[in-house]
Amino acid sequence: MVPAHFFEEMWYWVFLWALFSSLFVHGAVGVLMFVMLQRHRQGRLISVIVVSIGFLGSVTGAMITSAAVAGIYRVAGKNMAPLEALVFGVGQTVLTLIISFSRILATL
């Protein structure tokens, strides 16, 4: 594949990887929640709402951080290889998981 030269290309590829990795994580968690709460009266609805809100929040964050990464690369005058976009996109999801499961935000 050809390295990305323009801001829009860099942002798109980093965001796309973050989107798909986040979709994979939220899909797996959604299926788990749906299975665990299938006998609960409102459990199915609650699981869909919680997964939807979590996914929208992570996609919004991925848009912003992908733009920041692409902007830094563009200002530095560097090209972004496809593997770098993969690392940045999946890395955003991994860092979101680490922060979500840690108690860092509760201590602030």
Features of the shown structure:
4 helices; 81% helix; 108 residues
The low-pLDDT segments are none
Along the chain, the helix and strand elements come as: HHHH
Strand content: under 5%
Provide the number of structural domains. 1
Largest sheet: none
Fraction of residues in H or I helices:
over 70%
Mean pLDDT: 88
Which structural category fits the helices and strands? mainly alpha
Query: What is the straight-line distance between the termini?
Result: 43 Å
DSSP summary: helix tally: 4
Principal-axes shape call: elongated
Rg over CA atoms: 17 Å
Commentary on this structure:
This protein has 108 residues and is mainly alpha-helical. It is built from 4 helices and no strands. The mean pLDDT is 88.
Task: Please give the structural blueprint.
Elements (H helix, E strand, L loop, with lengths): L6 H30 L6 H34 L5 H20 L2 H4 L1
Helix pairs in contact: 1-2, 1-3, 2-3
Summarize the structure.
This protein has helices spanning 7-36, 43-76, 82-101, 104-107.
